[in-house]
Amino acid sequence: MKRLAVAALMLPMCFLAACGSGGPVRRVSEPSANIQQLSVRADGSWSVDVRIDNFSSVPMRFESVSLAMTLGGQQAGTLQARPGLSIGPETADVATVALVPAAGAKIAIADALARGRSIDYHLQGSLSAAPEDGGVRTWQIKRDNTLSPVPGLPGVLR
Q1: CA gap 92, 29 in Å, rounded
Q2: Could you tell me the pTM of the whole model?
Q3: DSSP conformation letters of the chain
Q4: Is the model's pLDDT at 69 over the cut of 60?
Q5: What are phi and psi of 5, to 5 degrees?
Q6: Cβ pair 50, 94 in contact under 8 A
Q7: Which of the pair, 12 or 91, is modelled with greater confidence?
Q8: Would you list the domain boundaries of the chain?
């Protein structure tokens, strides 16, 4: 009887010890990227703020971004950067990328801005990142969303 009581006390302690011995869970999850802001510059080029979301439970270093961008059905070009951003767990940061867009995309953006209307965009490509103590992984990104003109800020869409 005494052995059974000791075993009954030891079993929950063993479970608790097993749960606590591993420390916090290290989860590396697929990141996400989207356009936070697009600004048309005076020379016709664009400044594109790409928001990178780190959904991992560990800090990640984002090494490269390569995203083909389509706006209003028009190929705009490829957003390419080597941001070297360290982004904390479950948070986000922005990489600003300069782009000289294709003529069709320039016209689509100019029309959306002139009419004060939103425009759909599509991103497709890759995002490479690594945990602080691990190797680089590359994820395929595919994202559809919409940008709208910002009142009071000419040439800016969010």
Answers
A1: 13
A2: 0.84
A3: -HHHHHHHHHHHHHHHHHHHTT-S-------EEEEEEEEE-TTS-EEEEEEEEE-SSS-EEEEEEEEEEEETTEEEEEEEE---EEE-TTEEEEEEEEE---HHHHHHHHHHHHHT--EEEEEEEEEEEEETTS--EEEEEEEEEEE-BPTTSTTEE-
A4: yes
A5: -65, -40
A6: yes
A7: 91
A8: 28-150
Q: What whole-number distance in Å separates Cα of residue 101 and Cα of residue 104?
A: 8
What is the β-pairing status of strands 156-157 and 91-99?
A: unpaired
Q: What is the CATH number of domain 28-150?
A: 2.60.40.1820
Angle ∠(91,20,11) on CA atoms, nearest 5:
150
Distance CA 151, CA 57 (A): 37
Please give the share of the chain, as a percent, with pLDDT higher than 70. Answer: 85
Q: Please, what is the average pLDDT of the chain?
A: 91
Residue 16 has pLDDT above 50, yes or no: no
